Amino acid sequence: MIRPFLILCVIFLHCNGEFLSNKIRKFPDGFQFGASTSAYQIEGGWYEDGKGLSIWDIATHTDPSQIKDKSTGDVAADSYHLYKRDVEIAKELGLDFYRFSVSWPRILPKGFSEQINQAGIDYYNNLIDELLKNNIKPFLTMYHWDLPYELQKLGGWVNPYIIDWFVDYAKVLYDNFGDRVKLWTTINEPKQICYEGYGSTLKAPMLNVTGVAEYICAKNVLLAHAKAYHLYDEHYRKIQNGTIGISISCTWFEPASDTVDDHQAAIDARQFDWGQYAHPIFSKAGDFPLELKRNIALKSAEQGYPRSRLPELSASEICLIRGSSDFFGVNSYTTKLTYRDASLEGMYAVPSYMDDMAAVIISNPAWPQAQSTWLQEVPWGFHKILKEIMKLYDNPPVYITENGWSTSGGLLDEDRIRYYRNYLNVLLDAIEEGCDVRKFTAWTLIDNFEWKNGYTEKFGLYEVDFSSEKHNRTPRKSAYIYKEIIRTRTLDPTYEPEKFSV
Ligand SMILES: *[C@@H]1O[C@H](CO)[C@@H](O)[C@H](O)[C@H]1NC(C)=O
Ligand SMILES: *[C@@H]1O[C@H](CO)[C@@H](O)[C@H](O)[C@H]1NC(C)=O
What we know:
Oligomer: single chain
Family: Belongs to the glycosyl hydrolase 1 family.
Shape: globular
Bound molecules: 2-acetamido-2-deoxy-beta-D-glucopyranose
Number of helices: 17
Low-confidence stretches: 1-18
Number of strands: 15
Mean pLDDT: 95
Distance between the termini: 50 Å
Helix content: 40-55%
GO molecular function: beta-glucosidase activity
Radius of gyration: 22 Å
Keywords: Glycosidase, Hydrolase, Signal
Largest sheet: 8 strands, parallel, barrel
Signal peptide: 1-17
InterPro entries: GH (IPR017853), GH_1_N_CS (IPR033132), Glyco_hydro_1 (IPR001360)
């Protein structure tokens, strides 16, 4: 019963907060700014011009009650028709690059590369050309969760053949877009794909084969990424001269107290959350992290499994994966407190990812809360992530590929402005302390379909009017602030946009 006391201590320690000085701080030369979106969340056109179905089309149509407001991405922000306006917005903001994702089933309706949907190729060609015409670099994400349903019928990310299917798809993208696209992410957020999609019901395909499917998926995602990377590295890089990497979601887990147990719980949580994917790629040793291998092997043995539920990586697989990313794409939003409590055994399904991790994860109610329940503003946690990546992985080039804040709506978004300023402020601290952070990407350009939360959470720098067929886009106050940061390449905490009026 000492928990509440310990947690209060933590609240006290971390509550004196981040005080932004009024100092104007400059970003390093060459630092680039962008904004990010993903195909299913904004495009709509779900059944147009030969597009195949994705697992999100199936999830939203077969059981609408799984989505908070029973909505779908059928139309979303209608970017399939309004992409020129999206590029105009990117131009208004002065973005250096725009990170978007390609819908695999829009290009390959059945998932396989024997049948290419030309209308899909045309759509992305138009988008890419429009960006380049406006001097904005296209940053292409190959996979942001909308798997072709035809491949899910075959098991999706738990079928090892998906490694080949993904590489075939990557080849189609390099062949069609690589002459103009020089920035690539293979896979966006493996944890959300594997744990949330296969080891629980939080994301499509909501497989919920807990404690088993998420680890098979992790191995296949890592190998699919690595093989797509090597295909580019060995066959395309010489001609196309691009940069290619992976984006991993990184939450900071802070020990809830100074005990050895709580420290170990925080380390375990970080290794399950992002080390699981980062360690095999970015560490010197390669392979899954020790904490992951140890915890899952121990639990599996206790539970009577003949071998660990975490698949092994062979020596040649370890080699293939290690070093297979030109940059560490960090998607980071928030921080959690972590502790170990033996008496809470039994609170998670057995077997499961959470039970294997054996850490209890809580939020600190004193931290500013976004519209999304999982999202609180904790800039010092973001700072610790950047320092930890520098330390663990020998200071790789880091691109922040997502960071952002949700509200319930409205154009006057003071808390989003405060969030971005505080996060960019500690990002500058990290750079001064030696972290090799080179790009920052706001999530997101425009309001979108926020997965199981539908349209109830607004992350956009621009508001989208989902109630009108026109889907008008209007800049929020934060858009003017971000625009000024990009224009001046400085962080000025006192800047107020003159032109902004609601
Ligand atoms: C997911 O599976 C676990 C068993 O591993 C079960 O306890 C839980 O109720 C399932 N969740 C849903 C939403 O079906
Ligand atoms: C390749 O790209 C780099 C920047 O990423 C540039 O400096 C270099 O000139 C390019 N080389 C060729 C051959 O295009």
